[in-house]
Specification:
Number of strands: 6
Order of helices and strands: EEHEHEEHE
Structural class: alpha+beta
CATH class: Alpha Beta
Shape: globular
Largest sheet: 4 strands, mixed
CATH topology: Alpha-Beta Plaits
CATH architecture: 2-Layer Sandwich
Number of helices: 3
Oligomer: single chain
CATH superfamily: Cation efflux protein, cytoplasmic domain
Helix content: 25-40%
Distance between the termini: 45 Å
């Protein structure tokens, strides 16, 4: 993104953190699930940031790639068994795209949502 001679570059981890925040605010999303690639990315990024004395934004469960000014996001979710999973995924998808646009001005051209688990109970109680 640029404006009058200035150019802004957003780190992909920052974009992923914006998407995670939006997804976690979506009713029916229980948590993000990092998966193996996410765990490896988190480990490497965490080491680099600890060396630099920085605190990292929570981006586990999401990956972002920017190509030609367009953002592609992948969200890995755990959803509540008390909600229709497809509806939760669609709401999380919209929320992530809208949050990226609002925070950065970039277009989220593709937001892929994977539901990796369904939480059938909360605190030992079945879903309502």
């Amino acid at each position: 993104m640029s404006s009058a001679g200035a150019e802004w570059v957003f780190d992909e981890a920052v974009l992923a953190a914006i998407a995670v925040d939006a997804a976690l605010r979506t009713p029916g999303v229980v948590r993000m699930e990092p998966g193996l690639r996410g765990l490896l990315d988190r480990l490497g990024r965490g080491v680099r940031q600890r060396i630099g004395g920085l605190e990292r934004a929570p981006s586990e469960g999401a990956r972002a790639v920017v190509t030609d000014g367009e953002v592609r996001i992948r969200l890995d979710l755990v959803v509540s068994g008390s909600a229709r999973a497809a509806d939760v995924a669609a709401r999380a998808q919209r929320a992530a795209a809208e949050a990226i646009a609002a925070a950065t001005g970039l277009t989220a051209g593709l937001v892929t949502v994977s539901i990796l688990d369904v939480e059938l109970s909360v605190n030992g109680e079945p879903p309502a």
